[in-house]
Amino acid sequence: MKYEIQLSNQGVFVRNKNGRLLWRRASGCTLLLVFLLPTQFTRAGSATWNLNPSNGDWEMSRNWTPKTVPNGPDDIATFGVSNVTDLILSFQFDNEVNGIVFNAGASPFAITVASDSSSEYVLTLSGVGITNNSGITQNFITDSAENASPGAIHFTNSASAGELTVFTNNSQGETNLFDNSTADSATLIANQDANENAGGLISFLDDSLGGSCQVQVFGTGSLDISAHNAPGAAVGSIQGSGLVTLGGNNLTVGGNNLTTTFSGVIQDVGGVGGGVGGSLTKVGTGTLIFTGPNTYTGGTTVRGGSLEVRNGTGSATGCGAVEVAAGKLVGAGIIAGPVTVGTGSRTKALLTPGLTTAGEPGGPLTLLNTLTFNSQATYSVYVNSDNSTANQVVADGVTITSHSTFSLTDLGLGILSNAELYDSASGAWSATDSLVHARSAHTATLLPDGKVLVVGGELGLGLSLSSAELYDPASGTWTATGSLITARSFYTATLLPDGKVLVTGGDQNFGSTATAELYDPASGVWTATGSMASARALHTATLLANGKVLVVGGVRRRDRGTVRSGHRHLDYYRQTHYLAPEPHRDLVA
Fold first, then answer.
1. Distance between CA 185 and CA 163 in Å, rounded?
2. Is 163 exposed, middle or buried (0-12, 13-18, 19+ CB in 10 A)?
3. Could you tell me the mean pLDDT of each successive run of 10 residues in the chain, 589 residues long?
4. CB < 8 Å & 24+ apart, contacts of 49-56
5. How many CA atoms does the CB half-sphere of 424 hold within 13 Å?
6. 170 closest CA partner among 148, 155, 151, 147
7. Where are the beta strands (DSSP E) in 338-461?
8. Separation CA 355–CA 364 (nearest Å)
9. Exposure of 526 by Cβ count < 10 A (0-12 exposed, 13-18 middle, 19+ buried)?
10. 3-class SS letters over 479-503
């Protein structure tokens, strides 16, 4: 049997003929080896993963070219195209490389660092870190077997976690950043353990940098910055349902300008670095949404974007003070500490209670302490006249200084959905079922079966609708039917002798259209028919005795409602059948 002895400044490694690690002695130890069998000596060094390796074992030298396992502070592990892309590092000894390079056009790899023993298995990147030139996402996973120590990935010195890289930490697996290493724009994920034990862990220590990384923590998965040097760490964004431990440090969030939701708990205690008084700073242009209570004690500062609170219990921002220095504080949650809006400088700071990310009033913002508006602060109050809702703030005392602004904005469009019936015998109106969608500038056509077809229209602001609905006088209800092919408003609808409905022209958002469509009540489907010679809106359409439809005049709109002069063109639509429907009670919609 042939053995391979590998010498590096990490120690001496003995491998079998397949390159599997059998024994190791750390560097600095006295070693005497006597081999009675033929041996092969190789030294660790940089290598490229083979196109057709034997398996996915990182530690098997035959899987690399040259035939050596990268394991040293100067070694680079390079990956290109390969037919084996799921790799594992799981032996009882650690592995260190200067960097990992994914070449342009490389396959998508998944590299797992796992431990199945009482000793932690660590892959350390101590030099350049990860360079991803592949243009696609490359995945790294840390994991551990039941009752085993965690598999871990360490970044040291100034190593980078790279771009388009995802680190998924399962079952106590860890990704730890030391020294001046950086997460760059990687995605760092800490998942819940399947048995609800300690989940994955992401740690920023020393002076490590978060860059624009996305941090996602779920369940018992956690982010820990308690062992970072003061004043704290910054990450691009946080989201998920897991734990964030600050210790006495500040966590700055939002540098990647994403909008994310966090439903877990941000706390002071429980981290490896200890400490209390942790704080949070929101930066960037995105929105950070808190849907649950947090317990950190050092306060919250909003310097950019929006912080939205939606918690129903506890305090979304812990027990500390909240300062909106720039950006917005929005939402309909609960805040325990005193809130100050504005710093007195020219930077604009806003408080918009109750407003959700969907732009609708969402209930009161409850402040259990005082509220202060400093100079240059704006209190934005939103109402919706369409549904009679408004937002509000409830506070234990309000102070308003000079040069603060109160703004009232109506989110309603004045578009109605209600409908009424007129009884000509009594001369009285009575309410009936409301439309499925509020609309204006639509048409209502009485069909031969007594139902009423309402089509298109607009929501206001020039936004045309394609939806259609039917009113049934027997049940007094509206139901949706087939939608138009082209959204339109200010058009015409004509009942044809065969019971079908012809719609012509109209405005399509901010410009007029020449298209026409036919509605078949039997199928509830619209089909395109011949277009008019000229685009137009606000025209007339008249059913002639010979079954043709005469379209006259109107206006053509271009570029957000600019109106040109009326047209004199006459367009005809040929129809050969005729049916006179019976009159019914009038419906106003």
1. 5
2. middle
3. 51 51 47 39 78 95 95 96 94 84 98 79 95 98 78 96 97 94 98 81 97 97 97 97 97 97 96 95 96 97 95 96 95 95 86 68 86 91 73 91 83 81 92 91 95 90 87 95 94 96 90 94 96 92 94 76 38 36 40
4. 49/77, 49/78, 49/79, 49/80, 49/82, 49/87, 50/82, 51/80, 51/81, 51/82, 51/83, 52/82, 52/83, 52/84, 53/82, 53/83, 53/84, 54/18, 55/84, 56/84, 56/85, 56/86, 56/87, 56/88
5. 5
6. 151
7. 339-341, 349-353, 365-367, 371-373, 377-384, 389-390, 393-394, 398-400, 405-410, 419-423, 428-432, 443-446, 452-455
8. 9
9. buried
10. EEECCCCCCCECCEEEECCCCCEEE
The pTM assigned to this predicted structure is 0.67
Q: What is the DSSP letter of 61?
A: G
> Amino acid identity, residue 355?
L
CA dist 244 and 273 (Å) reads 13
What does the H/E/C string look like for 223-290? EECCCECCCEEEECEEEECCEEECCCCEEEECCCCCCEEECCEEECCCCCCCCCCCEEEECCCCEEEE
**Both structure tokens of 296:** 């950190």
pLDDT at 162: 97
3-state SS of 138-170 is EEEEEEECCCCCCEEEEECCCCECCCCEEEEEC
Task: Look at the block and give the residue holding tokens 């509020």.
Answer: 438
Give me the residues paired with residue 371 across strands.
339, 398
Placement of tokens 């000793």 in the chain: 119
- Please name the amino acid found at residue 103: N
The two beta strands, 349-353 and 389-390, are unpaired
Question: Tokens 């992401």 appear where?
Answer: 202
pLDDT of residue 23: 47
Rounded alpha-carbon distances, angstroms, from residue 501 to 478, 495, 496, 524:
18, 5, 6, 11
Distance between CA 436 and CA 455 in Å, rounded?
Answer: 11
Half-sphere exposure of 127 (CA within 13 A, CB side): 14
Question: Which pLDDT score, from 0 to 100, does residue 22 have?
Answer: 47
What is the rounded distance in angstroms from the CA atom of residue 60 to the CA atom of residue 68? 8
Contacts 24+ apart (CB under 8 A), 294-298: 294/265, 294/266, 294/267, 294/318, 295/265, 295/266, 295/267, 295/268, 295/319, 296/246, 296/266, 296/267, 296/268, 296/320, 297/268, 298/246, 298/248, 298/250, 298/268
Closest C-alpha to 292, from 327, 320, 270, 267: 267
Give the residue from 218, 213, 217 showing the smallest Cα distance to 234. Answer: 213
Both structure tokens of 110: 């998944």
